TrEMBL record:
Name of the molecule in the record: Glutamine--fructose-6-phosphate aminotransferase [isomerizing]
Gene name as annotated: glmS
Principal location class: cytoplasm
InterPro entries membership: GATase_2_dom, GFAT, GFAT_N, GlmS/AgaS_SIS, GlmS/FrlB_SIS, Ntn_hydrolases_N, SIS_dom, SIS_dom_sf
Keywords for this protein: Aminotransferase, Cytoplasm, Glutamine amidotransferase, Repeat, Transferase
Any one annotated GO CC term: cytosol
Amino acid sequence: MCGIIGYVGSKQALPVIIEGLQRLEYRGYDSAGIALISPAGNIEVRRAVGKLQNLVTQLQEEPKPLKGSVGMGHTRWATHGKPTELNAHPHRGPQSRVVVVHNGIIENYVQLKQELVQSGYSFNYSSETDTEVIAHLLEKCMLREGDTLEQATIKTLNRLKGTAAIVAISLDDPEKIVAARLSNAGAVVIGYGAEVEHEMFIASDIPAILPHTRRITFLESNEVAVLNTAGVTFFNSKGEVISKEIVTVNIDAISAAKGGYKHFMQKEIYDQPQALSDTLLGRVDLENGNVKLEDFKFSKSDIAAIEKVTLIGCGTSWHAGLVAKFWIESLAGLPCDVDYGSEFRYRDPILTPNHLLVAITQSGETVDTLAGIEEAKLKKAKVVSVVNVVGSQAARVADGVIYMHAGPEIGVASTKAFITSLADLFLLAVYLGRERGKLGADRAQSLLQSLVEIPNLLANTLLENSIYDQISRKFYTAKDFLYLGRGINYPIALEGALKLKELSYIHAEGYPAGELKHGPIALIDEGLPVVAIVVKDGLYDKVVSAVEQVKARDGFVLAIASEGDELIAGKADKVIYIPNTDPLLMPLLTTIPVQLLSYHLAEIRGCDVDQPRNLAKSVTVE
């Protein structure tokens, strides 16, 4: 969720912090703020409501530029309290000796606040946030109990319940930054900068510090890091010094340029052929019909022992799981369930050592999905994460990882991460089918050959744009859309409806076409646009029948159809054609039109495509 960046070194901290926040704004853009320890011995705090640019403008209008070589910044996605300047981070302690930024939710903050009030503290700033409690606790430990900033942080960490990534600075320890992580949500990344600059970095996500370093360490749950110009020291929750491994990440920094595209999301839609190619690279053995998964470290006996697969994810990742259910059951011969991460964590799922849990998460930090992984591991199930961010929590705690290789995805609404997660899940299904002897070499070769042809087919699908402009201009004032699909393309109807809601704020529903007569048909009239996925597969005739039912009630039908299908052209009002491929792989192609339709509708409506209201890229709190 919220974005955090911190710096300590010999350079001016403000430019580093602002640049880092710009790379993190996809994590939250309700408000932003910075805190610097100035050469005069003060903590200078600046906050602004709305997008980061508002803060930048405010700083540019300062009569004198803020200076300081120790500081931190925060971009917020509101959890406790409305997006106001009062609720924006950083937050001060009551005597302004300690300043804190925080990503996460403190579940027991009401109880802690009551305790502080009873002990004589008043909450002068009167924010609505849980973060203010952290600042008070830290300052209490330092001023009343004589603790150093790290000692106070360790004590405070042991009092908190919930999820938290915390970064703090103090006038009483002015040459250091202290960071802490509570639970396995709320990532904390420590970056080792250039030795000549004697600098260290801290961030809530790797891209924020990639321009400065690729040498990083991850904080785990209940760990504390103390950064200064000499380096970093790590502690556990008992205050004991611990050692941590430094890893080198090999991913490109996010380019600030959109490459000629108007929005990051638009660029990411058009990046999908390359992203898919990168995902398949080195994994497909066409000669033998096999799949190579480099980080899938299970023995043949482990795979043979699998009795059931459960897929969990949230939002778009859940839709990817729904598609993968068809693949796993048909190609691997395994029963398969799909569950929302947010629901899975709150029931007592039946899991055994012969159960495979597949967690799908672009960021690898989605709190509900991480909780599902934890539940599975407690019950000794095997866990595989399908994840995009290298070194993320979901990747580190799983027994096996299948990386998406989508590259950084900046647009909040997922596009290329969805396509690459589908590819990963298809590879997994083929891999399991081959290893378990359920999928023959000839069929596997045919499927994999079709798969490696998809990037070119995607590129062809992206060529046609005029129809999206036509549809958008016709229906940009619509209040509702209905998406229909059957079988393996029903989840794409759900994904299309989700994308439209996320981007354009138009209400939309995705339905199985076979359920049309069981309720939704009551909505059909001349004012309701219906997007029907009508591709040539075993359910083609069934979906054509649904289209006819819509047209009989004067509904407008936009069909997504297989190339060369003349029948549907005579029944639908508009048709978007996609290339033909194996029916099992059609979702990789039917996804493109629903993405482009949502994008164009949002753009013509004047919506913020890259940062839709109320949404953040990775949901690291409940």
